[in-house]
Write a structure and sequence with these properties.
Structural class: alpha/beta
Shape: elongated
Strand content: 15-25%
Strand order of the largest sheet: 2-1-5-3-4
Radius of gyration: 24 Å
Length: 255
């Protein structure tokens, strides 16, 4: 005989108060940006769901503090509790794999600048779609960098971070300040992310214009795509990018 389904009492609305860290208030509705606000939950959703329902990607939420004590995202809030959503601590540690990044199609300049500094930064120059990006992040254990909040909410992501600015200079400072990667300037190909090696001028002569052969003697070549690099007309600007980053965030040439 088939047993009748077990009836469960309906979930009861729970009323809590919420305060979101100033750094995260751009994600929430305007009326929740001024401090402590009231919120009704369904009585079964976890804090992880509550935080995301406010608009804050969990990649951006640091400690979740209920009535002064840090709790897990699986905590189910109850009436009368006060939730404080804090920002991630900086520098943010990403355990479980070497620190490396994956950037979406909109962050090409940031990817090239990270590579210029020797940071492992994979980049998709074509839009392969959020599911594929999230799967690639998980497969290669890369931190997904994006300004797409929907992408950062995908459960299959290994790790992720929202890029707060739309200006490459500020984007670079944000990522370097948040994750503190080791900087090894001039060690990666800005085109494909492969490692560079010193190259003999004669060995790469067939890849150079005649004027370049005559004017330069020091070259590097990518070990993956074989692109050749030298200190050409744009090197001064790149030197400035590198020097500024090393001065502020450290590197092999830092004083």
């Amino acid at each position: 005989m088939t047993k009748p389904p077990v009836s469960r009492p309906p979930a009861t609305k729970q009323r809590i108060t919420v305060e979101v860290a100033p750094e995260l208030r751009l994600f929430v509705a305007h009326e929740r940006r001024q401090g402590v606000t009231a919120l009704a939950t369904d009585g079964v959703s976890t804090l992880g769901h509550v935080v995301e329902s406010l608009g804050v990607p969990l990649t951006e939420a640091g400690a979740l503090v209920v009535d002064g004590a840090e709790v897990a995202v699986s905590h189910v809030p109850r009436t009368g509790e006060h939730l404080a959503v804090r920002a991630v601590e900086r520098p943010q540690r990403v355990p479980g794999a070497p620190l490396r990044f994956l950037l979406d199609v909109h962050l090409g300049t940031l990817a090239r600048r990270l590579r210029l500094l020797g940071v492992d930064a994979a980049y998709e120059s074509e839009d392969i779609g959020d599911p594929a990006l999230a799967a690639l992040s998980a497969r290669e254990r890369r931190v997904m960098l994006s300004r797409d909040r929907g992408l950062l909410r995908r459960r299959e992501l290994w790790a992720g971070a929202y890029v707060y600015s739309d200006r490459p200079e500020e984007q670079l400072r944000d990522v370097l300040g948040r994750f503190a990667p080791v900087l090894v300037p001039w060690s990666r190909c800005t085109a494909c992310n492969g490692p560079l090696r010193e190259a003999d001028k004669e060995a790469v002569a067939d890849r150079l214009e005649h004027g370049t052969q005559a004017a330069y003697d020091v070259f590097a070549q990518c070990t993956v795509c074989e692109r050749v690099y030298w200190r050409g007309a744009h090197h001064g600007h790149l030197e400035t990018v590198v020097a500024d980053a090393v001065r502020e965030f450290g590197g092999p040439d830092a004083a």
